[in-house]
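#lab-general

N.A. 3:47 PM
ok so I finally got the sequence cleaned up, no stray characters, all 294 residues accounted for. can someone with queue access submit it? mine expired

B.Y. 3:52 PM
send it over

N.A. 3:53 PM
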Amino acid sequence: MSGFEEMHARIGRLAEAQLFFIGGSAKSGTTWLQLLLDGHPAVACKGEGHLANHLSWLLAEGLAAHNRLLAHKNATIFRELAGFPLYGGGDLAYLTAAALLLGLSKDGRDAGLAAIGEKTPDNIRHLERLRSLFPRAKFIHLVRDGRDCAVSGWFHNQRSSPEWLGANFPSLACYVDFFAREWAKDLAQASAFADRHAEACVTLRYEDLVADTEAELARVLGFLGVAADAAALAACREAGAFERLTGGRAPGDEDRGSFFRNGVPGDWRRHFDAALTGAFRDTVSPWLERFGYA
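B.Y. 4:20 PM
back already:
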């Protein structure tokens, strides 16, 4: 079997599994959910592929440019012949899907999988595009209290992008003002999508996932059509255990130099004063109420 045939066969096996995408506002806990699900013996979930917000657009631009070349050749040199066929939207979907499956195939888990997924937080802003590319896909929207997201994002950017943070947001209050509007925009888009496609989208809260991890995981696994027996749930919990991911720290034992900084809900209360709390509430009050954060 040639390299192409072997790769095609591997992708074909993966394509039989239920495809799903995880999305959520920045610092909503999507990485944790990805790791929990990836611990399931019949689920592979990786991140971040940036298919919807980056690769699919590059592929679309590349195909459009190539189509222009083909159309020019067909209309000039080969005008008396049929010419080479142009590529269409279905071809873009196929190439994007192949790119996703190629990435997911690299860990060798191409057999025995019931569901395969990809986690990019920005998926939340491209749900309709993903659905148009992958009509059979399912979508998981993870919601977290926007105040905790903002605090987590503030410290994350201090660690990973200090120059960008300092140039754009001289204080936590400035960052929170920006983040509140982005959080509300994300929830509006995701909620509208979930209303339109209730059968293809499930929404869960980070706080509920922390409080009763196995029950929330069982709900998500049922949505994906995957077994949620005790052994599988235990494997998921172990894969996403905070102590394991941090080398032994307990949730709440803060390390601002780690991607997994804190791991507990409600940390925003240590960083918001009354004025910042009120300003955030004034900006996003309907969403705080809708998701039980008021």
